[in-house]
Amino acid sequence: MGNKKNIDNFFQEQFKNFEANPPDSVWENINNELEKDEKEERKIVPIWWKLSGIAAGLLFLIAIGVSQFSSDDNINTIANEDDIQVNKRILNSETSVVENEIISVTNKNDQQLNQQLPVLNTDKVVKLNSSKTAIQGDDLLVTSSDKSKKVSENSILSNKKSYKDQIVENSNNQLQEKSKDLKHETLSEKRIVTTNKVDENTKNRTIDKQLKIDEQLKEGFVVNESDIAIDKNVNQSKYTQNQITKLRDSFKEELVIDNAVVYLSDPNSGNSNKKAQTNMLTADDKHKNKHLSIIKKDLAVEDYKQYQIANNQEINEGSFIGKKVTDNVLNQSQDDDLKKDLNSSVSEVVSGFSNTIDEVQASLPTEKNTADTSIVKSTSSEKSEGDEDVMIENKLPVEQTIEEAIAEQELKKDEDIDEDKEEEMYNKWKIAPNIAPVYYNSLTTGSPIDGDFKGNKKKGQFTTSYGIGVGYAVNKRLSVRTGINQLEVGYDTQDVAVYSSPETSDGPKYKNINFSSAGASMSIAGAGSYSENQIPAAFSSLFDSSLNQRFGYLEVPLELSYKLSDKKLRVDVIAGMSTFFLNKNEIYSENKVKTTYIGEANNLNKMSYSTNLGIGFEYKISKSLNFNFDPTFKYQLNAFSNDSGNFKPYILGIYTGLSYRF
Amino acid sequence: MSLDQLIIKCKKNNRQAQGELYNLYAKQLFTLCLKYSKDYAESQDNLQDAFLTIFKKIKQYNNKGSFEGWMKRIVINTALQRYRKSSVLDVIKDDDVADDFVEIETPSVSLDFLLEIIQELPDKYRLVFNLYVLDDFSHKEIAEMLNISVGTSKSNLSRARHILKEKLETNHFKNKQTP
Q1: ipTM of the modeled complex
Q2: Interface test with B, best of A9, A12, A18 (most B CBs within 10 A)
Q3: What pTM was estimated for this model as a whole?
């Protein structure tokens, strides 16, 4: 009688050791459900892998293609093996070299010369220029070491300038166009691939879809991803796979987002609903909220279903069609807050995507469920290993290239936070193949060859540099860049007299030149080596050659880049230095009639440095692909060991190319 | 296999691991279901749904806090979901009833009976009773979970207690009387 107890304690004690066995059927049902889910996933994952593989392959090809254009190999289409040397020079757009190549000296004694002399095959010239210029092939000098040559002085003269310019222009254009074409080609290939894949999938999908919807309804999860992507009328390119991916990650669940209404619509219906729901998906900055409201709608639908169950109403899928569901649910809902919520933005309710679905489901739309600590909050930075349990149908918008989708998928691992948080995450690495027209000249009027030539007219040449760069972002604004470039520069000293003398010349020999055997039989004189009186007027026309220096470097730049602004066009200030390794060193004498290889300069340092200053412009093409345009001024510090007259060279280049950030 | 290893395998959807996890915890969680549901059938459904949810969401569990507690919470939520949108939880607002101290004589009753009378409670009372008494949630937490006011939670609890006491006493009396 006397044992009075608090009822709470009583129950607590009684239930302390209470255990009951569930019937076996429970596990059977669970197992079946899991099996079903797995089968769904198996269908989806391979498709993704296939697409990823294809896209990765294509991307790789593009990267190769772009870098190839900067290198010599692409010329093979124009050249045959004999003339690879030639074509190198052509496509490097060394105009004066090309110019020289028109002319060649033919002479049995000059066998060696010929080998060293770049030669031009008419056919190839024509091919090269076929689309752009109107060069008459026959007018050009043709030589190969086997063929005979023609010299047509007049035509050469008249064509000389235009030919040169056209060659330059043409080469540049061709290169540009080729890279453009390649890109278009590959992209369109990809598009085709995408479309095909998508089409295949569509067929299977419609069959499975009905089943899926049934299952999903049973499970109480609203899972869907619309196939609206296949509908080409729906342009959702702005609302991209990227957003889907991000949300997917955030929720780590199959609750998807866009196009929930399509799910809710009759699966056999036409496009009518799809149009309706595209209107739902509008401004980027509201998409999150929209998504949430859709999810809440889903929850509301679920609740409505439960309500129907509770009230012994038959769940009529037809009643889920389109907007009706919202109205029905609203009408049935006793919760004013839900009504409010469905009609307005939901930003105040669930902040961000850092709540687990559990919490979202655990809370009514107006509920703030924060008290519980035993549920682990899943932050959106959490990375799930494998997406096996993500039940997503694989649909890619046709508008979007695989390249973008894959780039985004790859970025998913690094960048799985919504765009608001981009501040904290950014692409650290950048790979940038580039090509640059380069102008070489000196800040002063000295001569790199000899003081004698100080007074001569000199001319810097436009040449090409190509290479690849790598950048690493130390922080949001500052990056370190390096890379490797192959650079050729040219510099002409004009008004030089070059004449051959049968025996060793008694003219001035220039110590800075290592003469080739052919060159050794030449004499060079600059006007400066004679006083005016010494040169009779008749002979002044002899000073009609120019000494053309052509040298090449392998350049390794090391630069810092500081971001000034970053809208659609990113502007950086670039400063640093480069190390140059000499890998080509040639001097030619050139006049109207012939070009002769004289030798090489011996006052060129094998290794030299420059200080660099430039501005980098970067235009964002896609999430990780950019177009770069970096005019840079590089002042060479010690290119020449022996200045021979105050020669202070610099290189001015406009480095352009595509870059890939990841 | 340790629990941690099991969890890791379950995260990878290893069916065997999932089965083992089920075997480990099914009893305990089923008990929980029984207390929250209004009948056996509903308990089964709840358990099923809860485990499916657990297996789906196990990836989000990152070893913070007790795994058991995490699972329990899922079970409770699954159970509560059924009652969420119905207005059954709204009680006509009473005066705030203070936590009253309900005493009973300790009857000797079977667990089955206790379970029975709990399940017989009106949903609103049963949920609150379970959450407060058997699972140690505070009124504040209950209020948030069920979207009711703290006062409603308290009064529901009080009502539940009284009903249970009544039933116990009736039963006790009945038993006494039976020869």
Answers
A1: 0.86
A2: A18
A3: 0.34
